[in-house]
Every structure is written in structure tokens, then in C-alpha cells.
Design goal:
Keywords: Cell membrane, Copper, Electron transport, Heme, Iron, Membrane, Metal-binding, Respiratory chain, Translocase, Transmembrane, Transmembrane helix, Transport. This protein is mainly alpha-helical. Helices cover 63% and strands 3% of the residues. The protein folds into two domains: 481 residues, Cytochrome C Oxidase, Chain A (Up-down Bundle), CATH 1.20.210; 162 residues, Cytochrome c-like domain (Cytochrome Bc1 Complex, Chain D, domain 2, Orthogonal Bundle), CATH 1.10.760.10. The chain is globular, with a radius of gyration of 26 Å.
């Protein structure tokens, strides 16, 4: 073809370099925070004795850092590198690319500042408060607009499979984020969820499961479909398999969220739907794994010498393991063992460390030398990183599986008299300490490898010459194109708007079918007349509970198992949570369930327990919270909280916002007097008093059976 018929254009490598560097920097930071959190589970003193670095506050910082900072920046680096080359067009607007980069980093910094301060919505993987949620939506839409503009300006007629996954990821994450983040603001950094109790739980895990699907999985599948064939110098194994993989995956994933809520107060029909569709997910997930591994046919000899392919092979294998385990965990009998134990932690990290981490490392090791027109500085260091990462995953995951089975078997054991053999939850926690130490060691190995990679990438850049813009050329698309007998999917691939509409319909169906009936059909959440709204002081105490991240270690959901009802009390009912915004069912028990703790202990017990947990619970791994005794309770925004709750349908009496402060102070004085009778001198206007009020309320709205 004559050169005059070609259009010349440039790829922007600078934005790729910046996102790549951010990936490495935030990855190391996020992993180090994770090691600190893991260390606190066997050495509570590692919180450094202040509220900002306690486990409850840095756990969400760790998850946000590794998901949105490390993995997020890796996605953007890979998309900004691969998409222009697949479409033969530069990104639509450079200004949008840079707005996206700086906007995303500012959002991450906002998370770093707000989460340790206790400014959180407490929703898992969505803890950031409403102004940051809005910023996320704006920056994400800018990314999507840039992507769609590039697709519309492409010079390649058909969209390659990687583009399908990028497009579906953008659409679905936008829907998930907006729907789950709906809330009514109280102040600049305080809001209450638009959903309550069971509804909030369903929406949250519809989001939570599919955030894993469409932020941690589908964009990485797109990256796999681009970078693996490039690294192996082989075409994708099966184009038709990729079609089945894509459409079945994006449709089925959106139904699977309820499998996180098996045996809870969620309506049974929703639990069944979640299980059925989760099991079906195994087929498309493994279809993608098979397509990836078989792409290496004829290139397996390269795997022994090429660290890029080593990382990618292990990544795809970890994807296969995690997507096998997920459907298995959706069976009720397996969920009964795994839920609320370290099994879930192991499952998540096999996917996060193996699939996301290793594919990111492989992508960077392949891409970085090409950006700087050189070879990798040290293949030996890259191979060392690989083995540190593999050992890190093993030392992390295997002890967590052992810990989960150990704890489950201990918790459910009854003695010959029919009583719980281990009646004190802490008896199980003490047994897990060696496994927690091994887990922290595994995390340390993994982050050591990431630090090695950072050094290797720095030296690679130093020895090369960065090419900020890369020249390319391609013929423009002709508008008249209507081939006869074209495969149906090939026709869809050249119609991006039509393709996007179909993908949107596919991802919306599952969420609509599951969520809408739960909100509109009242019989899903039977009313309990004795359940009343929280008092003003209890509401403030609940917010303190949320701010300190207590939900990260304590659940508030007693499942209908004998070993749980004997231990904690009457199983939880859907109608008990109608005023809980947000819901606090939790996903891991490092401490016992608290749903029936109200009235179980005197006020003084809670006071001393927060002052020094081991004084009341020998062997406890909970850190002390002495600052709660002296921190003055700030309830200046209490009237605004009451008005916000009223707008959300909580039946506080008309004008209660004017009376709430007086009610709060009266109840606080009563608790302070109770503590004084027990020999404890504390001011009524302290945070500990409000927290005690909340804890003493839990589970007292209905008559409960006696428990051991």
C-alpha cells in the first residue's frame, strides 16, 4: 500500500509511564500497610498506640490502596498502552488522559487522609465518603469518555476481544459505583446510606462481588488477551471461545452477589439465585483460563527462561483456582464452614496476589523496557521477584486455610454434656496466632519482591531512552463496508454503540431482578413492631463504632446454626435491621459476633474492655482504645443526623431534631452514673459513653433465648 494512503499518528507513552510508575509506588505502599495490618493480628501493639493506625482503620486503607491504587493504576497503564495500538488511533483527548491520571491520584490521597481519620461509610471496598465518591464517578466517566472517543475514531474496523472487556468494565463499574454509593449527606464527610439493613446488604454485596468481577477480573482479562499473546508471540488460542467467555461472564456475574450472604437474614429466594448463578460462573471463568493457557501452545519452552511468561502463567493459574473456589464457596454447606473465617481471606488473596498482582508484574516487565527502548536491567532480579512472590502467596494462603478449618471445627464442637466444648470465642483465636504469623511473613516476602521490581524498573529506565511519543500509521476506515456472509459477532464488533448497549443490558438484568423486589415487596423484610429507631446517644455511639472500623473484626449476624445460637443467642431476623444505615453484618470474625451483646455485660465491663481488652478477655488480640475515655463526644451535627434519618424514612417524631441533644445528655448521664457505681469516674460527654450506649442496645429489640 502506498504511504500516501496512510494516516500518521502518535501513541502517548508518557501517560503509560506515569500510570506504570504510580502502580509500582502505590503497590509497595499498599502492601506495606497490609503487612502492618497482618502483624497487628498477633501483635496488637503494632498499632503504635494511636487511633489512626489501628487494624479497624488501616484495613480499609490497605484494601483501597491495593485495589484502586495498585490494581487501578495497572489497569489504566495497560489500557492506555494497548487500546491505541489495537484501534490504530491515539487516545481521543490527551487532556482527558491527564485529568484522569491526576484526578485518580488525588482520590487515592484523599483515601489515605480520610480513612485513618475514621471518615468512612464502612461499606466494604466502598468506604470512601460521598464527596470522594462523586470525584470517583467524575474521573471514571472521563476515563470512559476518552475510551469511547478512541473507539469511535479508530482505524481498525473490528474491536479485538480486549476492547470488549475494557468497555464492559467501564460501563459496569460506573453502574455499580453509582447505585451502591447512593446516600444522603449529613455534613461534608458524613452521610447515611440510601438503603437500610437487608436491602443495604444485598446492594453492597451486589456491588462488592461485582467490583471484584468488573474491576479486578474483566479488565485484567482484557489485559491478558493483549499482553499474553504479545509476550508469547502467539495468537489467542480460540476467538470463538473468547466470545462465549465474554458474554456468559458479564451476564452471569451480576447475579452472584447474594452468595456472600448465605444463611443470613437475606430472603431465601435471593440466596438461591446467588448460588445457582455462582455455580454456572465456573464454565465461562475456566473458559477464559483455558483460552489463556492454550495461547501458550508451542511456546512453553520460553516459560522456563522468560520471567514475563512465568508471571503470566502463574497469574492465569491463580485466576483458575480463585474462580473454581468462588463457585464452591457458593454452596451452602461450604459457605457454612468458610464464611466469617480466614478461608475468605485466603480466597481473596489467591486472586489478588496471584491473578492481579502477577499479571501486573508480568505486564510491567514486558512493557517497561519497550517504553525505554532497552532490555530489562536484570532478568535475575526479575526471577528472584517471581520466586519471592510465589513463596509469599504460599505462606500467606495455606496458613489461612488451616486457620479457617481449625476455627470452624473448634467453634462447632460440643462436649458429651451437649455444651460447647470451646464456649469462649477467644479459645479459638489463640490457636490461630501461629498461622497469623506465617501470613504476615508471606506478605513480607511478597512486598519484598515488589520492592525488587521497583528497583529493577528504575534501573531499566536509567539505562534506556524514554520515547514519549511513538509513531505509527494506518489507513483510515472507509464508511462503505457491508460484507456478505459475515459472522454475526464480527458485525457486532464494528458497531461499538450497539455493542455497548447489548453489554449494558446484559449486566443490568441480574441486578434488577434481585434488588428491585427486595426494595418494593415488603414481605421480603417482615416488620417487627418492637424494633425502634436508635436513641440519639445510641446513634452517636454507632457512628463511633463505624469510625473505628469495629465491623472489620466483629459481625452482627447470628446464623441459624446450633453452635452459633448456643454461643451468641437467638439467630438474627431481617426485621431487626430496618434502621441500620449502613448494615454492619461484617464479613470476618476476628472477635465474637455482637448482635446479642446488649445487656449481656454491665456498662463497666465494656468500659474496662475498651480500656484494656485483655483485662476482661485474656488472650484477646484486640488493641486498647484508651482515647475513647478522654475524647469529647462532638454531637454538634446531631440535629442534622436526625433530620437526615427522617428524610430516609426513620420514624423519629416530628421536631425530634430539637429534642435530640437533651435526650442524648440525659441518657449519657445515666450511663456515667452506672459507671460511677462500679467505681469508674468518667464524664458523660465522652465517646466511651456513647459507644457503651450503642453496644448495650444491640439485640435487645426482640425477646431472645438464653445463651451460653
Amino acid at each position: 500500500m502506498n504511504d500516501t494512503m496512510l494516516e500518521r499518528f502518535q501513541y502517548d507513552n508518557k501517560i503509560v509511564k506515569y500510570f506504570g510508575a504510580a502502580t509500582i509506588i502505590w503497590g509497595v505502599i499498599g502492601m506495606l500497610v497490609g503487612v502492618l495490618a497482618a502483624t497487628q493480628l498477633f501483635l496488637p501493639e503494632a498499632n503504635l498506640g494511636n487511633p489512626y493506625t489501628t487494624f479497624g482503620r488501616i484495613r480499609p486503607l490497605h484494601t483501597n490502596a491495593v485495589i484502586f491504587a495498585f490494581v487501578g493504576n495497572a489497569i489504566f497503564a495497560g489500557v492506555y498502552y494497548s487500546m491505541p495500538r489495537l484501534l490504530k488511533a491515539p487516545m481521543w483527548k490527551k487532556s482527558l488522559s491527564w485529568f484522569h491520571f491526576y484526578g485518580w491520584q488525588i482520590i487515592i490521597l484523599a483515601a489515605v487522609l480520610t480513612l485513618p481519620l475514621g471518615l468512612t461509610s464502612s461499606k466494604e471496598y466502598a468506604e470512601l465518603e460521598w464527596p470522594i465518591d462523586i470525584a470517583i464517578a467524575v474521573v471514571w466517566v472521563a476515563f470512559g469518555a476518552n475510551m469511547i472517543g478512541t473507539i469511535l475514531n479508530r482505524r481498525e474496523r473490528h474491536m479485538y476481544v480486549a476492547i470488549w472487556f475494557y468497555l464492559a468494565s467501564f460501563i459496569t463499574v460506573a453502574v455499580l459505583h453509582i447505585v451502591n454509593s447512593l446516600a444522603l449527606p449529613v455534613t461534608l464527610f458524613k452521610s447515611y446510606s440510601a438503603y437500610a439493613g437487608v436491602q443495604d446488604a444485598l446492594v453492597q454485596w451486589w456491588y462488592g462481588h461485582n467490583a471484584v468481577a468488573f474491576f479486578l477480573t474483566t479488565p485484567f482479562l482484557g489485559l491478558m488477551y493483549y499482553f499474553l499473546p504479545k509476550a508469547a508471540n502467539r495468537p489467542v488460542y480460540s476467538y470463538k471461545l473468547s466470545i462465549i467467555h465474554f458474554w456468559s461472564l458479564i451476564f452471569l456475574y451480576m447475579w452472584a452477589g447474594p452468595h456472600h450472604l448465605l444463611y443470613t437474614s437475606l430472603p431465601e429466594w435471593a440466596q438461591v439465585l446467588g448460588t445457582v448463578f455462582s455455580v454456572m460462573l465456573l464454565a465461562p471463568s475456566w473458559g477464559g483460563m483455558v483460552n489463556g493457557l492454550l495461547t501458550l501452545r508451542g511456546a512453553w519452552d520460553k516459560v522456563t527462561n522468560d520471567p514475563v511468561l512465568k508471571f503470566m502463567v502463574v497469574a492465569i493459574t491463580a485466576y483458575g483456582m480463585a474462580t473454581f473456589e468462588g463457585p464452591m464457596l457458593s454452596f451452602k454447606n461450604v459457605s457454612a464452614i468458610a464464611h466469617y473465617t480466614d478461608w475468605i481471606i485466603a480466597h481473596v488473596h489467591v486472586g489478588g496476589l496471584g491473578w492481579n498482582g502477577f499479571l501486573t508484574f508480568g505486564m510491567l516487565y514486558w512493557m517497561w523496557p519497550r517504553l525505554f527502548k532497552t532490555t530489562i536491567y536484570s532478568t535475575k532480579l526479575a526471577n528472584t521477584h517471581f520466586w519471592l512472590g510465589v513463596l509469599g502467596i504460599i505462606f500467606y494462603a495455606l496458613p489461612m486455610y488451616v486457620a479457617a478449618l481449625t476455627q470452624f471445627l473448634m467453634l462447632r464442637e460440643f462436649d458429651e454434656m451437649g455444651k460447647l466444648a470451646y464456649g469462649n470465642f477467644l479459645q479459638t483465636v489463640v490457636e490461630l496466632v501461629p498461622m497469623y504469623m506465617l501470613r504476615a511473613f508471606g506478605g513480607l516476602l511478597y512486598v519484598s519482591g515488589a520492592i525488587l521490581m521497583g528497583y529493577n524498573m528504575f534501573k531499566t529506565a536509567k539505562q534506556g531512552t524514554f520515547v514519549a511519543t511513538e509513531e505509527d500509521s494506518a489507513p483510515a476506515l472507509t464508511k462503505s463496508y457491508n460484507p456478505q456472509g459475515e459472522f454475526w459477532h464480527r458485525a457486532w464488533e464494528r458497531k461499538p454503540v450497539f455493542f455497548a448497549v447489548l453489554a449494558t443490558v446484559a449486566i443490568l438484568i441480574g441486578g434488577v431482578v434481585e434488588i428491585v423486589p427486595t426494595i418494593l415487596v415488603k414481605s421480603n423484610i417482615p416488620t417487627i413492631s418492637s424494633v425502634k429507631p436508635y436513641t440519639a446517644l445510641e446513634l452517636e455511639g454507632r457512628d463511633i463504632y463505624i469510625n473505628n472500623g469495629c465491623v472489620g473484626c466483629h459481625s452482627q449476624m447470628i446464623r441459624p446454626f446450633r453452635f452459633e445460637t448456643e454461643r451468641y443467642g437467638e439467630y438474627s431476623k431481617a426485621g431487626e435491621f430496618v434502621y441500620d444505615r449502613p448494615f454492619l453484618w461484617g464479613s470476618k470474625r476476628t472477635g465474637p459476633d455482637l448482635h446479642r451483646v446488649g445487656g449481656k455485660y454491665p456498662d463497666s465491663w465494656h468500659y474496662f474492655h475498651m480500656e484494656d481488652p485483655r483485662s476482661m478477655s485474656p488472650g484477646s488480640l484486640m488493641p486498647p482504645y484508651p482515647w475513647l475515655k478522654t475524647n469529647e463526644l462532638n454531637y454538634s451535627d446531631l440535629p442534622a443526623k436526625i433530620r437526615t434519618m427522617q428524610k430516609l424514612g426513620v420514624p423519629y417524631p416530628e421536631g425530634y431534631d430539637q429534642q435530640a441533644v437533651a435526650d442524648l445528655e440525659a441518657q449519657a448521664v445515666k450511663i456515667a452514673l452506672n459507671l460511677e457505681d462500679a467505681g469508674v469516674a468518667v464524664m458523660p460527654n465522652t465517646e466511651i459513653v456513647a459507644l457503651i450506649a450503642y453496644l448495650q442496645r444491640l439485640g435487645t429489640d426482640i425477646k431472645v433465648s438464653s445463651s451460653n
